[in-house]
Amino acid sequence: MAGxxxxxxxxxxxxxxxxxxxxxxxxxxxxxxxxxxxEESGSVEPFGLQWxxxxxxxxxxxxxxxxxxxxxxxEGADEETTGHVLIEGENLEVLRILQRGxxxxxxxxxxxxxxxxxxxxxxxxxxxxxxxxxxxxxxxxDAGGLLTSNPKAGGRYxxxxxxxxxxxxxxxxxxxxxxxxxxxxxxxxxVHHLKSVMDELFGEENFINLVSVKTKVAAGASGxxxxxxxxxxxxxxxxxxxxxxxxxxxxxxxxxxxxxxxIGEMREAGQSWxxxxxxxxxxERRYVKTIxxxxxxxxxxxxxxxxxxxxxxxxxxxxxLTEEEVYRKYLGCIFSDTNAQTxxxxxxxxxxxxxxDGQMYELEYVPRSGKDKGRQVVHSYIGxxxxxxxxxxxxxxxxxxxxxxxxxxxxxxxxxKYNNVGKEGELSFPNGKKPVELVKRCxxxxxxxxxxxxxxxxxxxxxxxxxxxxxxxxxxxxxxxLVQMPEPMxxxxxxISELTKERLRRSARQVREAGATAEQDLGYRVxxxxxxxxxxxxxxxGSDIAELEVLLARHVSQLEEGRAKNMQAEVVQAxxxxxxxxxxxxxxxxxxxxxxxxxxxxxxxxxxxxxNAVWEVSHETVPVRLWVCLDAQVQVETVRGLTERDAGTPxxxxxxxxxxxxxDKMMLSERVTVQTM
Length: 677
Description:
With about 675 residues, the protein is of the alpha/beta class. It has 19 helices and 30 strands. The strands form six sheets. It has a ten-stranded mixed sheet with strand order 3-25-4-24-23-5-8-10-9-22, with helices on both faces. Helix 4 (about 90-95) runs parallel beside helix 7 (about 155-175). It comes from Tumebacillus lacus.
């Protein structure tokens, strides 16, 4: 039975990581997660980060969306073929909307949320906020703004920030795949609190790294008390996995710096640059013998005769080349040598005589551990003392015309260039931008060049730019979903979301000019958070019971009155269940989201149904197809065609309530799943 319990606990940890404290299941925390509207247990609060409003922040994460999405035609690029999406709307509400269509489908999340410097604007979320109130506060219905300041002197400085970030991260976790990652840029104001929140929401065991990112060279003090602190030149990147056991290896991940910069920096620091030898002629290779390592595995020994060894400086003089030109021309032949003591080298020295001038040993074997485990490698040895050869080509390469020296990726990222960040995408952004290379490195942490990428603090659109650029470099087919609220801003562009669109347009042009193929997706489609077209009860926040009863009675009366009128005329009207002014294309988006289809689903018209307009919605990640008819009446010919269709991919049929007779519903139910609205 213990094994069964362990499996249950493991499954529960994946479903509700917030219920585990110090690795142990906390029943009260589990009860609070599963029954958020229930009464408090009264027990002492467990270990963990607590703050005023945390319970309400949990409730915000489980609240149903009050809005839906509508496509905004003409705002994007290559709109009919692109798989990239930009959503204009407040990100908490949008994350709620995306729960069905994107749950478990996102490979990487990168976000750059407000750092809470005391000058940031935060989202004052309201539990139970109606669609109308949302639109008013977001500026889509009037001139009001949704964001409010969060000064340090306000008394709720950290509380407000935590209440903002907690529900968004809780919802974001649901969207990640089992092998997915989330990377969060953050400053030192909230990094400690964010780490505690992430440990709670994702589980401590899924913490990957806290990366220090060098942002700029430290400068002089800037006043305001900062003369009593060291100048900041570091920000942080917090990385968590959805499930670390499903995560791929980071062993092959590297970071790079221009090779000539590395050489110059080492010389300025008085350090010796070792890669100065060149093997110009490899001579002739012949097999000598096979020996064994300590585990009895074969080590095949070869010798090369007539090799020609020279130096970088000698080639510069002989061929009249600059140092960089020599490194570029002979990159694969440049090496350093070392007398590092290894068991393999020792066995080679014991088995073979010293090398003569013009000779080099090569040893072939299959390592049983390390980064080359399981694949055949060749090690070279040179000189009278049989020194191991280290090839520069193993740690350097040419990337986009630049020689780059690489090393295994660590937790100090000091090679990212912040000097030209303001010019990236050909747009400035007063709220700060991150380098495209930073986001690209985050995306490369998972081995999937077709991953879905999410950024729900899109800002200037750096994540979209990074996806475009990385796809150009490696031929990948990553897709992005960006979320940005239409927050007013000063300048030629009225809102930040307008700036996001312009950045995507300009970065797409830059990527094309850099050599993108004609097939690469450099478009994007725009959606906006709007009230639903289907009539639903709007949440009531007041405390007057009499007023609530009047509103409820009016809502029911409106629905019943419309249906009774049309039943007498033996015809259904869309206005019975839909708000006035609805458009079929908007309603179709609302339906597919509600049915768990992503926004890049394929939509086609079923031409064989001539008497009705029937749309088919499909997506490679959804095991069923959606057939939608929004006509007032589903005709007999359509019903007959549906009942006679060949059984294959399961179909969900959706139409207006009353568009089908009870008899037709029964007939169709034998072939398809019928839903009405």
